[in-house]
Amino acid sequence: MPRLSRLTPDTAVGASRDLLADLVSRHGQVGDMVATMAHSPAVLGGYLQLSRAMGRAKLDRRISERVSIAVQVLQGCGLCLDAHVGAARALGVGEEEIERARAGTSADPAIAAVIALALRVHREPASITDDQVTALREHGFSDRAIADVVGVVALNILTGAFNLLAGLTPESVTSA
């Protein structure tokens, strides 16, 4: 059962009311996470800005979804994990690669290196080495794509931690 209530443009106040009203007018509805984030205009606004910014990332979406799967397995947010597995499938990522991402790796050495970096960013960023970054460059990743890994991890930490705090689970959501 959710710990925090969903808000609507009618029940939210201040900046959250405006943000929700805009989202509802453009999309018809908002998901449980966004409606619940509206309790904090700072969190909702920050999430929306980071989410939009990461939409312009240079890291391939099929890779970022596998990174997200690995991070959410580590973090334990079932709602986020389900969403990222669904997104990976929609992008054509096969079931074997989804299972490898759940295990924190990939059959492709370049993608495995990106996932390993992402998990290190999440767990222990101070331990990242020059050799890891050099290896990513040797796999063909630009500095921008490497930097995008931090953004993907940060977005996943925000959404996963929020959903876990709010008690949002695959069983508790009312809309996507």
UniProtKB/TrEMBL annotation:
Q: Which SUPFAM superfamilies match?
A: AhpD-like
Q: State the InterPro entries in the record.
A: AhpD-like, AhpD_core, CMD-like
Regions that span the bilayer: none
Q: Which residues form the Carboxymuconolactone decarboxylase-like domain?
A: 45-117
**NCBIfam families in the record:** ahpD_dom (TIGR00778)
Query: What is the name attached to this protein's record?
Result: Carboxymuconolactone decarboxylase family protein
Q: Which organism is it from?
A: Streptomyces lancefieldiae
Q: What is the lineage of its organism?
A: Bacteria, Bacillati, Actinomycetota, Actinomycetes, Kitasatosporales
